[in-house]
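Project channel, design review

CF: Before we commit to the Sphaerobacter thermophilus constructs, I'd like one complete example in the thread so the newer folks can see what an input/output pair looks like. Taking Vacuolar-type H+-ATPase subunit H.
RD: sounds good, go ahead.
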Amino acid sequence: MQDGRGGHGQPSQPVDILMLLDRLEDLISNGMRVPLSSRVMIEEEDALALIDQLRLALPQEIKLARRVVQERQKIITDAQAEADKILAVAKERAEYLMAEQGLINEAKARAEEILRQAKDNAKRSMGEVDGYALRLLSELEAVLEEDLERIKHVKSAVTSR
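CF: and here is what came back for Vacuolar-type H+-ATPase subunit H:
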């Protein structure tokens, strides 16, 4: 039986789940029919190799979802760092202006405005990130649902023979 790595110890290229399901379906369709029954005999080693490859391919889909979540988190972290940087500059500027008599009120107003803008920018960025992540997760969900339907179809084909 193969180890899911191409049989030579070398990691194989990422495998499409749909292709693997098609190969499993072909294996079943081309199997030897058992006389006087709806059963089909297939090569155990071939079936187990395909199942191993499916097991290896599914984590790739999960890794893609995790990568989307990690990208979203990085964008949020970057936006927060930028907001913190803007706040630090605003505080520095405010402290400088407060040292000058007569400009204290102006400095407070400017610092609050900069803080408000930073928060608005962070909210807008987070909204865009959430939208992006939601679109990618929806696409991944659709792919996984298609894969699940194919698995159900193959399973049904196997049990109906």
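RD: helpful, thanks. The mean pLDDT is 82.
CF: The chain is about 80% helix and 0% strand.
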